[in-house]
Specification:
Keywords: Hydrolase, Metal-binding. The chain has about 160 residues and is mostly helical. The chain is about 65% helix and about 0% strand. The two termini are about 35 Å apart.
Length: about 160
């Protein structure tokens, strides 16, 4: 399904655009055709940016873009259309990773729900006899351990870059 590329994200997009076909859910009905096309394009770009398999390339692309702008000599980054989309993708990606920045009570609720989702996936993978995805094996990962791994690997890399 979806050419095995960003399957969850593409499913979310398909459901979202299907919902927009319902007149009770179509909040972009007043946009003209060109605006609807731009909305669709940007929505796809932003949702696909939440795919964690693209984490390192999103980071590398942003760093390359910023470095290229610095070489150009301007103290202010002037962003063209492509650069702005790249910055928006990075912001959406960071927002998707932002649970540890939330107040502890809210963070605790979210992390428990996320880990339960991962563990259910791991349980299903075990039942199917396939390799269990990273952080999805409830027998080998605790919530605390998962958060240390997540913080050290993802958040620290973004914040320190």
């Amino acid at each position: 399904m979806y050419n095995d590329e960003s399957v969850l994200e593409q499913h979310h997009l398909a459901v979202a655009f299907k919902l927009l076909q319902d007149s009770n859910c179509n909040f972009i009905v007043s946009l003209n055709k060109k605006q609807r096309q731009l909305f669709r394009k940007l929505t796809i770009e932003m949702v696909l940016a939440t795919d964690m398999s693209k984490h390192m390339s999103i980071l590398a692309d942003l760093k390359t873009m910023v470095e290229a702008k610095k070489v150009a000599g301007s103290s202010v980054l002037t962003l063209d259309k492509t650069d702005r989309i790249q910055v928006m993708q990075t912001m959406i990606h960071l927002a998707d990773l932002s649970n540890p920045t939330k107040p502890i009570d809210l963070y605790s609720i979210w992390v428990k729900n996320i880990m339960e989702e991962y563990w259910r996936q791991g349980d299903r993978e075990r039942d199917l006899g396939i390799d269990i995805s990273p952080m999805c094996d409830r027998n080998n990962i605790t919530i605390a351990k998962s958060q240390v791994v997540t913080k050290n690997y993802y958040k620290a890399k973004y914040i320190n870059q």
